[in-house]
Each structure stands twice: as C-alpha cells, then as structure tokens.
Amino acid sequence: MSDRIAGIQTSSKAVAAGIHTTGEIIGRLDEVQTRIGDVLGEQERMAQLIEAAG
User: Fold this and answer.
1) What b/e string do you get for 25-39 counting C-beta neighbours within 10 Å, with b at 16 or more?
2) Residue 54 pLDDT greater than 90, yes or no
3) Confidence band (pLDDT; 50, 70, 90) for 25?
4) Coil, strand, or helix at residue 21?
5) Helices (H), ranges, the chain
6) CA–CA distance, 4 with 12 (Å, rounded to integer)
7) Is pLDDT at 18 greater than 90 in this prediction?
C-alpha cells in the first residue's frame, strides 16, 4: 500500500510541475501576443503617416 501512495505522490508532483510549466508558457505567449499587438499598432500608425504625407 505504501508503494501505491508513493506512486500517487510522485505522479501528483509531476502533474503539479507540468501545470506550473504550462502556466509559465502561457505567460510567455501572453507577452508575445502583447508585443505583436504593439508592433501592429505601430505599423498602422506609420501607414497612416505615410498616407497623410502622400
């Protein structure tokens, strides 16, 4: 029985580590998405300036 409990505890730790890693990856993707939004906004502003100057 103690072997089964140890196995469950090991599995639980692995799942917790996986969830933590997934959270970190989601955070990084959030940062990338924000940066892409910033770049697209800048591109739109530049296009408007070029159009207004033309």
Assistant:
1) eeeeeeeeeeeeeee
2) no
3) very high
4) helix
5) 2-53
6) 12
7) yes
For residue 17, the 8-state DSSP code is H
Q: Which of 21, 19, 43, 39 has its CA nearest to residue 31?
A: 39
What φ, ψ does residue 34 adopt, rounded to 5°? -60, -45
Per-residue pLDDT, 33: 98
Cα dihedral 33, 36, 37, 38, rounded to 10, equals 120
Which residue type is seen at 13?
K
- Which amino acid appears at position 45 of this protein? R
State the virtual CA torsion across 36, 39, 41, 42 in degrees, nearest 10.
180
Q: Which two tokens stand for residue 21?
A: 């890693």
